[in-house]
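Side project, low priority. Logging it here so it doesn't get lost.
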Amino acid sequence: MIQSIDYLAILPTLIVAVASVVVLMADAFGAPRRIVGLLTMISLVAAAGSLVVGRGRSTFCAARSCSYVADDFTVLFQAVVLLAALVVVLLSHGEMRRSALPAGEYHFLLLAAITGALLLAAGRDLITLVVALETLSLPVFALVGLRRHDGVASEAALKLFLVSVVSSAVTLFGISLVYGVTGAMHLDRVAAGLAHVPAELKPVAAAGIVLVIAGFGFKVAAVPFHFWAPDVYQGAPLPVAAFLSVVSKAGGFAGLTLVLTVGFWPFGHTWGPMMGVLSAATMTLGNLVALRQRNAVRLLAWSSVAQSGYMLAPLAGGARVRLHEAMTATAAYVAMYAIMNIGAFAVVAVVARRGGRELDDYRGLVRTNPGTAAALAFFLVCLAGLPPGVMGLLAKVVVFKAAVGGAATWLAVIMAVNTVIGLYYYLGWAARLFAPARAEPTPVGRAAGIAVAVSLAGAIVVSLVPELVLHAAALAVP
């Protein structure tokens, strides 16, 4: 049977995939670094613009089940991925010059990883999701270790590689068990099979579901699958750390949310409590360890782990009647988190230009770089969930509501305690900005300045009109 392909449905992913080859060839034929970066940005903008064209379409279908679906859920997550990736490319401009990174390889690997993230949001069968995970993960190994003579970067790349290999094996084993029970790969057919699985096969199905969740847990840095994140974030180039923290995490949560709510919902009574325990452990450990950090990147790494716990919380209910609310809450939180965290990484990249890696290096930043300091203060307030960072506050309110609605009141209590813990290190970092100055003004490059400005504008707009994201998330969930 020959399948027809709806190229409009896959257009955003196709544009980025083709662009990855184009930038590599352009570099091979001697194109300047600036041209290679410009081509990358143009492809991301074009892919973002094409989201509207393919919205509501699907392709690679067989008997009413499709492997690629460009519904509103897909469009929302792909928009988050592409916009965050644009900021990463802007941050990469200065990093490539300082670290002498090869422009062609760097942008090729970056676009290849973005392709995987876009595919994760659109995939509707287990094989497509696994391929998307690998397409996202494999280029990131090379990106982390692209500073070839940096031992710390090489160690970080090796850790990420080993963890990802294990997670891939675990995921594939889980999928094989699910397929053995249901005889299906498409998520809708998997759900139908799980709804009528014989009693003697239910333990096998439950084991497969748990293993698949564990595989995605590595990708989103959920406890106890988180241990790679701090060292990898610290060893990677800062734009790559930002990519892992935002773009890679958004793709991972898109895939995990789809698998649980579309494919595994008949076993919500099995994975719901598991997600609750993972959520509580992730946010608690992430916040407690973040309290002890003195390095800015490691603090953001542990903060990112804690934020994953909040994103997992809406899925703790596991009840079919609550899945719409759970998907909406997770999608809204991921979108808002992406804006806040990519902005914080943008400012860290600016301060790192003068060698500032420790939190004490931010003392007096409001006097030496007032605009940059104001942006970082606002991002930290958003991450803490305090006014005027209304977007962060509403993001937490949404997941609180979803947790309570999913009969996980105990988890809401743990979230409240962790929110208070998070206040300490976020506000402690912000307080350093207003301490007596200890450094000279840091020059802000044009590309990095644009990245900070774009992130700050997005954070302010969403804080003033949070309905933009909340309404989009509600409409995105079927």
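Brief comment: Residues 264-478 form one domain.
Revisit when time allows.
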